[in-house]
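Section 5: illustrative case.
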């Protein structure tokens, strides 16, 4: 069976311990490769390589660094089919989704920051009669990038690309549940001519190699995307070491639907915002609030369409949903369906595991699930489920729906459906979230700030925000 390797100092190498862990294919429930069980010794090797590479990489012109990153982006594009197949197999998502969202976005991430760095400028502040301040933004040095399993290469590259563009050397760790495309990225980095030691990719468990990255004194910043509990632990560990921290954490996003919306457009998009990637996108709207005047119509049309969704193996071109990412995750999601019943909810469709046939009989499939009749403040409506499960709740007034929407500990993204422009602005202003989509969902412009408030995170990614995070400003004053 295939054994993946770490990518350190420009070459693939086994973990120092010689230990490996199993990697499961969600579609079949079977182990299909082994990945390094790396630890602090591998981190030490990667830090040494990065330390050696940093003076050369950081002194290179932004234009030259950008050229190499464009080649990296093109390298992924030229291996499109390989990356798409690997992402789908590793994560369980339909091939069609990996081909239309995950891999194209990873290509864009590298291309975007490769070119953005040439336009990145710093400020100067003139003081009348006294002199002038100018600010220089320098790379931090060695930085750690830790990413989750739901959009593996998409989120991995969203961190690595700005870190490298800004002149840092990177120690990156993908999720141990979806390591494969990060493993392939090493080959592309070699082919693109990225100097050895600039990007180091380590595989293994969060509590082991991830923890060693967070604790390493020479790693100056941690950019982390993952669960809120993990983010809290990382903050507790890294803050006393005065590391820069960017934390992109969990969500429990409201999708607020007013009676005056474009109904057909709203239904089409709400199906995606509820169940794309099996509901495993931090931006999915898992709490759907519908104005009472159209609640029954919404319920009938939505449930009828969802009940017809095809849950199938990821290679099936007609699959609307593939497998969820792992057995423990499937069990967690199904346990929330049981909790919803205990809390008085009614399952309108779904609510169970789907057993496919043949090779896929042990895969982790869940029927998309719609639940109604729950209080807005019950656990099902407050805790992140992160699977193909949504609740629907009627509302009467703007004040009432705002109160319910803002009632969770999270504040990542919100969606609003209305044709009343004033109401849209009024609501967007009062919703506690880092991102608001009006009459749309998941429209992403890579220049915009991305991130959440409350327990959904600290800091912002995207555009200048990311380049500012990965640089340290130094102000110089010159007296006349
Ligand atoms: P997770 O927190 O379990 O793991 C994320 C990453 O952190 C993995 O690489 C893991 O190995 C590593 N890790 C775990 N423990 C660690 C530790 N002690 N020290 C260092 N690293 C550690 O999250 P997950 O289950 O992989 O991902 C799902 C979560 O990610 C959900 O909560 C989802 O909302 C969130 N998410 C947020 C965003 C966002 O942009 N805000 C995007 C995608 C996913």
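Designed sequence:
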């Amino acid at each position: 069976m295939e054994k993946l390797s770490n990518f350190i100092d420009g070459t693939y190498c086994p973990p120092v311990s010689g230990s490996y862990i199993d990697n499961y294919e969600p579609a079949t429930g079977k182990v299909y490769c082994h990945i390094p069980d790396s630890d602090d010794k591998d981190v030490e090797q990667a830090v040494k390589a990065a330390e050696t590479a940093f003076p050369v990489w950081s002194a290179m012109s932004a234009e030259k660094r950008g050229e190499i990153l464009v080649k990296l982006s093109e390298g992924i594009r030229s291996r499109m089919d390989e990356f798409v197949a690997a992402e789908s197999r590793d994560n369980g998502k339909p091939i069609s989704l990996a081909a239309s969202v995950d891999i194209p976005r990873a290509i864009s991430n590298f291309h975007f920051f490769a070119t953005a760095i040439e336009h990145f400028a710093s400020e100067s502040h003139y003081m009348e009669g006294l002199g002038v301040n100018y600010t220089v933004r320098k790379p931090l040095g060695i930085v750690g990038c830790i990413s989750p399993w739901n959009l593996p290469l998409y989120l991995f590259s969203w961190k690595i690309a700005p870190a490298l563009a800004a002149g840092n050397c990177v120690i990156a760790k993908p999720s141990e549940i979806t390591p494969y495309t990060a493993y392939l990225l090493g080959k592309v980095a070699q082919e693109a001519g990225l100097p050895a030691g600039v990007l180091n990719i380590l595989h293994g468990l969060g509590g082991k190699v991830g923890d060693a990255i967070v604790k390493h004194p020479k790693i100056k910043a941690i950019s982390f995307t993952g669960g809120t509990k993990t983010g809290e632990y990382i903050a507790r560990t890294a803050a006393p070491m005065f590391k820069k921290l960017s934390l992109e954490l969990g969500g429990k996003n409201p999708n607020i639907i007013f009676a005056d919306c474009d109904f057909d457009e709203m239904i089409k998009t709400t199906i995606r915002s509820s169940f794309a990637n099996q509901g495993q996108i931090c931006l999915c709207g898992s709490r759907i609030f519908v104005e009472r005047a159209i609640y029954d119509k919404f319920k009938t049309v939505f449930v009828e369409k969802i009940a017809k969704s095809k849950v199938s193996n990821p290679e099936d071109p007609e699959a609307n949903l593939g497998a969820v990412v792992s057995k423990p995750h499937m069990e967690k999601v199904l346990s929330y369906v049981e909790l919803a019943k205990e809390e008085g909810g009614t399952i309108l469709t779904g609510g169970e595991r789907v057993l496919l046939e043949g090779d896929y009989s042990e895969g982790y499939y869940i029927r998309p699930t719609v639940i109604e009749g729950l209080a807005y403040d019950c656990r099902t409506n407050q805790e992140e489920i992160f699977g193909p499960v949504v609740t629907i709740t009627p509302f009467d007034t703007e004040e009432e729906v705002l109160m319910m929407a803002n009632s969770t500990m999270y504040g990542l993204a919100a969606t609003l459906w209305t044709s009343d422009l004033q109401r849209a602005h009024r609501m967007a202003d009062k919703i506690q979230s880092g991102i608001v989509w009006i009459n749309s969902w998941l429209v992403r412009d890579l220049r915009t700030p991305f991130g959440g408030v409350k327990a959904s995170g600290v800091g912002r990614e995207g555009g200048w925000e990311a380049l500012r995070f990965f640089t340290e400003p130094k102000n110089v004053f010159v007296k006349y």
